[in-house]
């Protein structure tokens, strides 16, 4: 894909014209031109950039060169050491934006032309016709010259756009005024319309400047996101710390990140513990704990600890770069409704030209007001009918929506996905990692009669110190949470398929030691352990889909051989101390998200590859009654197809892993849950929407934002059409002067863009309840 900036587009007809010019080139597979972002996205692998640029220029538009890395100094800038001249002081008070300067000068030159109109009939003598002609000519051909130039190129290309309308309208008013002035006696005050021509140009330029300001605001979030990464990093090479520019880093580099610094790269923590503020990337307001083995994202802010991070992604492959790329692509791809609007805009301008001719002929033949008034009414029709608002209604809204979604940790791949999401009537959730946390936690610690549960947990944690097994991490995390002091363990070894065994010292390395086994029910049965006292508790957990590990004390003289011998020696039976249950807890927001969706008449379904007991238990916990368990990846895709066939609206699938990819792709809308420990790459490439926070509540926010966006697009289109439906007949009936028509046209564009920006005030739904722990 090649993305080119385009300058000079003023309406939907312009973007359609550039698209047609690009699509005519051999080798162009697709071309999408976005009026709001002023960019063209072209899929033409075999074509050079210069060929595409040439086609755009031939169509009458400009492609600016990429900005220089080190722009040359401005020779007109005054030397700060020299006293400022009067011109320098004037320049310092003028707007620095070229568009704003043009609007200011055009306004200053137009104001004197409005004095006769403001002063009434006797005001014609306030500004001589000669000076009216001079001022209007400067405004028209200097500050409005772009419209005549672009309009002429459009005519040469057998096309019509806003530039043609403005050029014809203002040019006709100026030419009529010149003809009347030159043909009127000096003693007779001529009826001139120079002020209308100048005012229309000024108002159109003002509207374009306000549109540009609004569009810059919509892109400010992306600029801020791109600026998150620091310019340099502290890198460890050959045992020494070096400060290097970010573009000099290599994959695998070890980067030191001190408290308060932004992470310069995506990577994995090698050493250190800290809390990371990822709010600007994921939308999560609270800092998250990160330690060895966990992933961190470049641009997030390190908290209180020093971290050593191995770089796993740089440059264009970093998380921030991919987020920006996805948001830009979402802004550049047109929604289906915008494609329909473009078709309307393509025929709109020719129809307006016909209506202007009809108006001119009608007033000339049916009225006694003469050529001048007929021309003025036709000019009003040309000016009021500019389709700018029509072309901006959808892309301006989508720009705001996609940026707003990104700030909430919701990445939308394209505009059509956002439009389909609005129609979702059924959401299918994966279980593990989507509605659950995706990693095991301790769900219960049960002790045999006379045994302290904390002693059971501390002994189990002592045996698993240093282990990276998920169950071991859960035990150690629970022990840390309870502030337990762990005894010293030695000789710990794994029994594959069973568990582990080891010696635990009562008070220190030199104190008496006791041998413990921690493992499965199968192992306990082979050891002859009596589990009856805790069997009921274990069964209760099994019904919920939890796994159970048993802790037993092995008396001296017994052994833990798991293989049978011909004549095993008698051995004392190990004594049951307790058991630990492990389960994948529901996410805190899962139940609230499901309840909110169901309250909005959105049907919720659970599709899981887990066994029925675990899936049904989770369904009850989060409020989902329709549960499909034991579903393999291809089975999930088949279920999605069945649900689509039986649902009147769109079907969305929410998943988090590679096994969910077929279902994510098969749904009308796929929402991929990203995780800090990976999976984001697969999510971004499979689903239409990526939820960076890994939070089910993001599904509620995404649906609510899609609905608000759709409502805003339709509201903007209504006002865009309403301006023309009301304004064109009024202009044809002679009820609008060209100047009023120009003001109304400019106002319509500003209203549409301002309305789109108002979407930025959207607030996500408030969570009224949450899932139980």
UniProtKB/TrEMBL annotation:
Cellular component, GO annotation: endomembrane system; plasma membrane
Q: Where in the cell is it found?
A: Cell membrane; Endomembrane system
GO:BP terms for this protein?
Answer: copper ion homeostasis
Q: Show the catalytic activity.
A: Cu(2+)(in) + ATP + H2O = Cu(2+)(out) + ADP + phosphate + H(+)
Its Enzyme Commission number(s) read 7.2.2.9
Keywords from the named record: ATP-binding, Cell membrane, Membrane, Metal-binding, Nucleotide-binding, Translocase, Transmembrane, Transmembrane helix
Q: Where is the composition biased (Low complexity)?
A: 76-85
Please tell me where this protein is predominantly located: membrane
Q: How does it sit in the membrane?
A: Multi-pass membrane protein
**Biased composition annotated in UniProt, kind: Pro residues:** 64-75
InterPro entries, A to Z:
ATPase_P-typ_cyto_dom_N, ATPase_P-typ_P_site, ATPase_P-typ_TM_dom_sf, ATPase_P-typ_transduc_dom_A_sf, ATPase_P-type_domA, HAD-like_sf, HAD_sf, Heavy-metal-associated_CS
- Please give the Gene3D superfamilies that the UniProt record associates with this protein: 3.30.70.100, Calcium-transporting ATPase, cytoplasmic domain N, Calcium-transporting ATPase, cytoplasmic transduction domain A, HAD superfamily/HAD-like
Q: Does the keyword Glycoprotein apply?
A: no
Q: Which residues cross the membrane?
A: 103-120, 126-143, 164-184, 190-207, 344-366, 378-401, 717-734, 740-760
Disordered: region residues: 63-85
Does the record bear Nucleotide-binding in its keywords? yes
Q: Which family does it belong to?
A: Belongs to the cation transport ATPase (P-type) (TC 3.A.3) family. Type IB subfamily.
Matches recorded under PANTHER family: ATP7, ISOFORM B (PTHR43520), P-TYPE CU(+) TRANSPORTER (PTHR43520:SF8)
Q: What is this protein called?
A: P-type Cu(2+) transporter
Provenance organism: Vitreoscilla filiformis
């Amino acid at each position: 894909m090649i993305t080119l900036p385009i300058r000079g587009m003023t309406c939907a007809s312009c973007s359609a014209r550039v698209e047609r010019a690009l699509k005519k080139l051999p080798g162009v597979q697709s071309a999408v031109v976005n009026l709001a972002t002023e960019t063209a996205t072209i899929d033409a692998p075999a074509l050079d950039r210069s060929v595409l640029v040439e086609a755009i220029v031939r169509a009458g538009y400009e492609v600016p060169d990429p900005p220089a890395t080190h722009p040359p100094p401005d020779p007109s800038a005054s030397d700060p050491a020299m006293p400022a001249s009067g011109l320098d002081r004037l320049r310092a008070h003028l707007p620095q934006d070229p568009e704003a300067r043009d609007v200011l000068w055009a306004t200053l030159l137009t104001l004197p032309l409005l004095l006769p109109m403001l002063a009434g009939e006797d005001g014609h003598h306030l500004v001589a016709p000669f000076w009216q002609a001079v001022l209007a000519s400067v405004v028209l051909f200097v500050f409005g010259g772009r419209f005549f130039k672009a309009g002429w190129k459009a005519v040469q290309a057998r096309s019509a756009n806003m530039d043609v309308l403005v050029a014809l309208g203002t040019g006709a008013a100026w030419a009529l005024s010149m003809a009347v002035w030159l043909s009127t006696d000096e003693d007779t005050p001529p009826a001139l319309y120079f002020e209308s021509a100048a005012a229309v140009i000024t108002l159109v330029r003002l509207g374009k400047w306000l549109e540009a300001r609004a569009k810059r605001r919509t892109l400010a979030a992306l600029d801020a996101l791109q600026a998150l990464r620091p310019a340099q990093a502290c890198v460890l090479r050959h045992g020494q710390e070096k400060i290097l520019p970010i573009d000099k880093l290599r994959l695998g580099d070890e980067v030191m990140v001190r408290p308060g610094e932004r992470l310069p790269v995506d990577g994995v923590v090698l050493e250190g513990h800290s809390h990371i503020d990822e709010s600007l990337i994921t939308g999560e307001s609270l800092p998250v704990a990160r330690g060895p083995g966990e992933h961190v994202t470049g641009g997030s802010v390190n908290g209180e600890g020093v971290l050593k991070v191995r770089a796993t992604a740089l440059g264009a492959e970093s998380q921030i770069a991919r987020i920006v790329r996805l948001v830009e692509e979402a802004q550049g791809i047109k929604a289906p409704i915008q494609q329909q609007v473009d078709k309307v805009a393509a025929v709109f301008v020719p129809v307006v030209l016909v209506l202007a001719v009809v108006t001119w002929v009608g007033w000339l033949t049916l009225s006694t007001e003469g050529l001048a008034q007929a021309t003025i009414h036709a000019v009003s029709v040309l000016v009021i009918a500019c389709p700018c608002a029509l072309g901006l209604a959808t892309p301006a809204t989508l720009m705001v929506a996609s940026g707003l979604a990104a700030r909430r940790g919701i990445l939308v791949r394209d505009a059509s996905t956002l439009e389909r999401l609005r129609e979702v009537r059924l959401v299918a959730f994966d279980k593990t990692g989507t509605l659950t946390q995706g990693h095991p936690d301790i769900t219960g610690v049960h002790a045999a009669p006379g045994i302290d549960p904390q002693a059971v947990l501390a002994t189990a944690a002592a045996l698993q110190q240093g282990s990276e097994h998920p169950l071991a991490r859960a035990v150690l995390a629970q022990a840390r949470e309870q502030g337990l002091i762990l005894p010293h363990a030695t000789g710990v070894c794994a029994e594959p398929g069973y568990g582990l065994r080891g010696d635990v010292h009562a008070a220190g390395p030199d104190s008496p030691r006791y041998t413990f086994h921690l493992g499965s029910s199968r192992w306990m049965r082979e050891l002859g352990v009596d589990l009856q006292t805790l069997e009921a508790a274990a069964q209760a957990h099994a019904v919920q889909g939890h796994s159970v590990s048993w802790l037993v004390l092995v008396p001296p003289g017994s052994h833990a051989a798991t293989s049978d011998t011909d004549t095993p020696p008698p051995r004392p039976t190990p004594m049951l101390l307790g058991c630990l249950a492990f389960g994948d807890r529901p996410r805190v927001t899962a139940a609230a998200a499901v309840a909110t969706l169901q309250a909005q008449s959105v049907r919720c379904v659970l599709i899981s590859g887990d066994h029925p007991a675990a899936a049904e238990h989770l369904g009850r916990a989060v409020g989902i009654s329709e549960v499909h368990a034991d579903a393999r990846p291809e089975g999930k895709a088949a279920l999605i197809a069945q649900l689509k066939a039986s649902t009147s609206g769109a079907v969305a699938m929410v998943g988090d892993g590679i096994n969910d990819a077929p279902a994510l792709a098969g749904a009308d809308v796929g929402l991929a849950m990203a995780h800090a420990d990976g999976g984001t790459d697969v999510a971004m490439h499979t689903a239409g929407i990526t939820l960076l926070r890994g939070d089910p509540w993001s599904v509620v926010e995404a649906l609510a934002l899609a609905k608000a966006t759709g409502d805003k697009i339709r509201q903007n289109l209504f006002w865009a059409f309403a301006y023309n439906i009301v304004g064109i007949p009024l202009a044809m009936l002679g009820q609008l002067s060209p100047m009023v028509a120009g003001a109304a046209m400019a106002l319509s564009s500003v209203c549409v863009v301002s309305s789109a920006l108002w979407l930025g005030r959207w607030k996500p739904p408030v969570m009224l309840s949450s899932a139980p722990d």
